[in-house]
Amino acid sequence: MTTNAAHLHEASPHTPHHEGPLVDAQAQLASAIATLGYEPGLHQLLASPRREMTVSVPLRRDDGSVEVLTGHRVQHNFSRGPAKGGLRYSPAVDLDEVRALAMWMTWKCALLDVPYGGAKGGVRIDPRHYSRGELQRVTRRYTSEILPIIGPDRDIPAPDIGTDEQTMAWMMDTYSVASGYTVPGVVTGKPVSLGGSLGRAQATSAGVVHIALAALEHLGLTPTATTAAVQGFGKVGSDAALFLTEAGVTVVAVSDQYGAVHHPEGLNIHALQAHAATTGSIVNFPGAQTIPGEELLTLEVDLLVPAAVEGVLTAANARNVHAKVIVEGANGPTTAEADRIFAEAGVLVVPDILANAGGVIVSYFEWVQSNQAYWWSRTEVDARLEHRMLAAWHHLLDVASARGLTLRQAATVTAVERVADAHRTRGLYP
Questions:
Q1: Cβ atoms 73, 150 nearer than 8 A
Q2: b/e burial code for range 53-72 (CB count within 10 A of at least 16 → b)
Q3: pLDDT at 19
Q4: Taking a C-beta distance cutoff of 8 angstroms, is the pair 111, 32 a contact?
Q5: Is 190 known to be catalytic?
Q6: Are 364 and 342 spatial neighbours (Cβ–Cβ below 8 Å)?
Q7: Which of 110, 177, 250, 277 could lock onto 418 through a cystine, CB 3.0 to 4.6 A?
Q8: In 320-421, where do the E strands start and end?
């Protein structure tokens, strides 16, 4: 296990449009540190992951051949509680990406006042090219390799890009077998049958829509008179589009990795979900125009929800974005350069660490339920999620107004201040 601060500013080779998510994450932290007036030593501590583990993940393929994959787990901070963060399977995974995502998880948990620090994990693999059996073997081997640093009181993984509740079930079983007894609290995002929480699967999407509707109201926009575009039609984007439609918003365009579909009168999201389930993509959806995916970002809409991957709103396209409100369903979809352009243009950007925090909130609820062996109703989960999201939203508006900051700056300042306070109160050991 190593912590290598010397590599904190290396750019990711998988984000060609800008220097990489870690550079953006570090810039956001530096800005918050300057606002708060913290000393360099505290800045360095908050900028450096507390623990990193990189592991080889040997896999025996179904044809008998052996392939060695690379996996990472980064634990950014423990000051407010055990580490918490998703596990992604993607060919774009690299250590700097995981470092950035772990840092954002620290701020997200602090902003929402959830008693966790931030972590993130990843395996460099394209899960679409592997069988279910192969993915199970990858998951179990990766879990066994990082076993010393995870646990219900240490670090609690959850699903992310390329992983799902089945992945979490395999992780929980691998950890439990090694422990000699069932440990449901080691992961969240599990199947309900294994101690998962009702409402967890759609929690991130629900949180995005709670915040989107609050942001529209803040600008005096009525949902029924509002148009929206949703980039990404996976775990977050698909249900976000559905919930927006149910709230009265006209969703005119959505995209996935293969392209986008557009209909100015609004898309039938239920039918689109069925089409995507049948064909594997949203493209060629009957009655809608198929357009290049990147065109979705610059459509004439009121609300834009980037809910795919990081680094999609850049200096190259930001000036062509027409949306009045951007609600970040994905982690880090807006680069620092694009952020400045949006601020100058008066575009309201609701940052990822608030907008997509519904998942970690209900993950926290699931962890509490697993540790107590007592489960809440769906109504209770949904009501508690909405309360936590809107309380954080109103607090964020107050901080932004009082300090003259953008919402992202206010979010990062609030979160960094809470983590720094916890660190200072605990003191430095030894």
A1: yes
A2: bbbebebeeeeeeeeebbbb
A3: 67
A4: no
A5: no
A6: no
A7: 110
A8: 325-327, 348-350
